[in-house]
Write a structure and sequence with these properties.
- It is built from 22 helices and seven strands.
- By secondary structure, the protein is of the alpha+beta class.
- The protein has a four-stranded antiparallel beta sheet with strand order 4-3-6-7, with no helix packed on it. A three-stranded antiparallel beta sheet has the order 1-2-5.
- Strand 6 and strand 7 (about 75-80) form a beta hairpin.
- Helix 3 packs antiparallel against helix 4, helix 9 runs antiparallel to helix 10 (about 265-290) and helix 19 packs antiparallel against helix 21.
- It starts with 5 loop residues before the first strand and ends with a helix.
Length: about 525
């Protein structure tokens, strides 16, 4: 009978033991590190030792040898090579993929696999694919246990940041990047951190347009999980938009797949099946959301236990309560943010400011401009916060755009043309940010949105064709002046006091510009 040693890994040590007589010792050599056990006690029959893993990370190769040292100083017995110790002696990234990352040759010892991942991450700085694979294996082994206090989480998170900082827009790079961000979405849920989960899902979905040439269930799962976070925030329309898009992702992914190519299709078929499960859940969930009457019902749908069917990892997160804890944390954060700022107060303040400035324009009083500036800046900050919370009160935003327009006129009349041109000109980038991030949730929003755009156009033309004309608009001055006056008539109505006041102001700008041109020509 051949004597063999039993080897296993813990988080911090590699352990070895074997049958041995009293006084015998077990010796383990890995690389240039050697550990010898204590002699076997008279009443025992097993020699055992523990080698710290910290001694192994910096070694390039890890050949091993196990010896049994007899008590009488006789010939040492060389034990057979251990398969697990041979497996962790990884000398190339190709070997890592074959022995650790491979789905078909999965390393059964979880702690040994984690050791291999940590060793690669601590030594590999160039190969993005290998680092990403190690992060994913480490992350998913953490998730399989479902322990939010796992000691490997800190190192995992520390290594994710520099890996994601590497920009590789190739198909392979996108696949690995989204694999890492999707894994980190799950880790964030394990830690009950909804904001970090949302950020990782956003990064995953930023590559969603690549679905035309990539097929990955990560895109569909990311949209479904992002929808659950939106439901926790009470954002019903955003959730419905995401769930509807799951079907688009599926179709475009199938179109971009290579299932018809011999030798490439099988695993893509498995991805199609995995994606189809997500589509089915999104389809059914969307019907239930449309019937949800209030925020309480939306929160219940966000915590739907059906999410456990998405994957083995989601089953762990659901059954151990991590998904519910994440959803509850998002709901609590959303309620806390709901009053910061108050959308009703913002609307009232924007309306009041634009009315005061409109009166000043009618009465040709420039002194209110100084006090209005800090109020306008405060309202702009409030508008930015509302936008970050995905709140778009378009009637109030149109009032704020009017206030900017009126203040630009008053500053110009006070001889502060540079400030006026900057205030009016900066309305466009502000509006661009708002319009590029809006979700179309209510039909009633379209009319004030259109009005908002019209006022922004009026600010734009006043800044660039009248107050501080740019060259191209100066050359076509009469045409752009006519377009501006058309917007004035559209926004204030014909023959109204404000229409007449703004029209008169515009004509004064035209006259001043013509006088300046005549002086240059003279």
């Amino acid at each position: 009978m051949t004597l063999t040693a039993e080897v296993k890994f813990t988080r911090d040590h590699v352990m070895a033991s074997c049958k041995a007589g009293p006084g015998s010792r077990l010796q383990l050599t890995i690389g240039h590190t050697r550990v010898v056990s204590l002699p076997v006690a008279p009443d025992e029959e097993t020699a055992s030792l523990a080698m710290p893993l910290d001694l192994l990370y910096g070694q390039a190769t890890l050949p091993h040898e196990l010896r049994l040292l007899p008590a009488d100083g006789g010939a040492e017995l060389v034990l057979p090579q251990d398969a697990l110790l041979e497996a962790v002696d990884i000398r190339s990234n190709r070997q890592f993929f074959a022995r650790v990352q491979s789905n078909t040759a999965r390393m059964d010892d979880t702690e040994a696999a984690r050791f291999c991942c940590r060793r690669l991450l601590r030594n590999e700085r160039e190969d993005l694919s290998a680092r990403s694979a190690a992060l994913c294996v480490l992350g998913y082994r953490i998730l399989e246990l479902g322990d939010s206090t796992d000691s490997d989480i800190a190192e995992l998170c520390e290594e994710v940041e520099p890996t994601l900082a590497e920009r590789d827009e190739s198909e392979n790079g996108i696949r690995w990047r989204t694999s890492v961000t999707m894994m980190m979405s799950y880790i964030s849920m394990l830690q009950h951190d909804p904001l970090q989960a949302e950020e990782m899902l956003k990064i995953t979905l930023s590559y969603r347009s690549s679905a035309s040439r990539l097929l990955s269930p990560n895109y569909a799962r990311a949209e479904l999980l992002m929808a659950s976070l939106k439901l926790a925030q009470g954002r019903k329309e955003d959730a419905l938009d995401l769930l509807s898009d799951v079907e688009t992702v599926f179709r475009s992914g199938v179109r971009g797949s290579a299932v018809e190519i011999a030798g490439r299709g099988y695993y893509q078929y498995t991805e199609i099946q995995a994606s189809l499960r997500v589509v089915r859940m999104a389809f059914l969930l969307r019907q239930r959301i449309e019937r949800a009457a209030d925020r309480k019902a939306l929160l219940a749908l966000a915590r739907d236990p059906g999410y456990r069917n998405l994957s083995t990892i989601m089953r762990v997160l659901v059954e151990k309560g991590h998904l519910d804890a994440t959803i509850d944390a998002m709901a609590a954060a959303s309620e806390l943010q709901a009053g910061q700022p108050d959308a009703g107060r913002f609307a009232a303040d924007a309306a009041a400011l634009q009315e005061e400035l409109a009166s000043a324009v009618l009465e040709e009083r420039t002194e209110p401009a100084e006090a209005a500036l800090p109020r306008l800046l405060a309202l702009m900050a409030a508008a930015d916060q509302l936008r970050e919370d995905h709140v778009f009160p378009w009637t109030a935003l149109a009032d704020l755009a009017r206030a900017r327009f009126y203040l630009g006129l008053l500053l110009t009349s006070a001889g502060r043309e540079d400030e006026a041109a900057a205030l009016l000109g900066e309305t466009s980038p502000w509006a661009k940010t708002l319009l590029s991030q809006v979700s179309f949730g209510q039909e009633a929003d379209f009319v004030p949105m259109n009005q908002f755009i019209s006022i922004v156009m009026m600010c734009y033309l006043m800044a660039h064709s009248q107050v501080r004309p740019v060259k191209s608009y100066l050359e076509g001055g009469s045409r752009f002046t006519a377009q501006l006056l058309g917007l004035v008539r559209q926004n204030f109505g014909p023959r109204t006091p404000l229409h007449d006041a703004v029209t008169a102001f515009t004509h004064r700008c035209v006259s001043r510009r013509k006088a300046a041109l005549a002086a240059v020509a003279g």
